[in-house]
Sequence to fold (296 residues):
Amino acid sequence: MKKPVRLLLSTLLVTTSLGWAQPLASVHAAKTTGVVQPAKTGRQIKLASAENVRDLGGYVNRDGKHIRAHKLLRSASLAKLSAKDGQKLMQTYHVKTAVDLRSIEEVAKQPDAKVKGLTTVLNPVVPHLNTAAFMQGNGSQNMETAYQNFVLSKDGKKAYRQMFKLLLKAPKNQATLYHCSAGKDRTGVATALILSALKVDRATIMNDYLLSNRYLAQSNHQILAQATAAGAQADTLATLTAVLGVQSSYLNTSFQAINAKYGNVTTYLHKGLGLTNHDLAQLQKAYLATPKAQTR
Fold:
């Protein structure tokens, strides 16, 4: 890889969910692997200073119950969150706590913006990231390895356990937002675990996960365009594309790793994360609602 390309990538690949590029200005949307059609739920909360922000409210689980709106939000980095957007999250969506899943190094370089009334809790899934390693070899395979480590490593399980504990402690009238850097990998796995705990089916979980390709398409396209202009070769661009986007195989790797060691996600929530039946029942009580019967 030529030196100018290495320098560009070292600049771009700084702080997304795996320590990669902070989303840049919007340009023409790019074609990305696994883009899904707009869903009735999982739609983006449009903010000027943060990307891939969504409310999980509205998803229906296997029992016909739906996730309460303005209770569970996911997003990309809040490092550039403006006071105006911060107030929107707090006033419209009742967010009081932001759980930061990024590494220590990412937080040190670009800490969450300080917004009055919003509390940030540092909770790294991977305390220390070797970002350069993701550009070596096969990008998709590197991502799948990372997804396995997210759910099986001691640090990953500790972080996701803490995340659930925070959700269980959240006041009834408040929402919790959790994020990494691009809001797609560590946040994607976090969402998959939360939705699983709330008895949401796997197809819905995957659909929500793949929406990151839609909401990050424009910024990812610009990053790839810059790398191309700097002379990046086809293999480098392929690896970069694999790292910037999400693929069903990535999340499936997490589920497969869980099944191989624990048998199923429910057992993982119990034995891997230490959640009790009471914890799960309380979580479902707090974040699920039974649709009101329609009157004729």
About this structure: The first strand starts at residue 54 and ends at 55.
